[in-house]
Amino acid sequence: MNTALVHWKEAATVILTAGIRRTSADSLRTSIQKHSPNPPVSWTQSSLPVRSAFDYEVLLLKRSGKSGFMPNAYVFPGGLVDSSDFSSEWVDIFKNFTHSPNFGLGVVKQAPQTRPPIFATDRMKFGSPVPGDVAFRICAVRETFEESGVLLVVPKEEENNVLKSLGDRENGGMTTQPAQLSNVCGDKDLANWRKLVIKNPLNFIRMCRELECLPNIWALHEWGNWLTPTAVYGKQRRYDTAFFICCLKDIPHTLQDEKEIVHFKWSTPIEVLQSYEARDLWIAPPQLYDLSRLCHFHSLQALHRFARQRSLEGCEQWLPIRLTSTDCLISLLPGDALYPEEVDMSGQSDVNMRTQKSLEEIQQENSSLHRIIFHDPYTTSLHINITPKYKHLSPLPPTATISSSSSSSSSSGTDGSDSTPPTSRL
Question: Rg of the chain over CA atoms, in angstroms?
Answer without folding.
Answer: 21
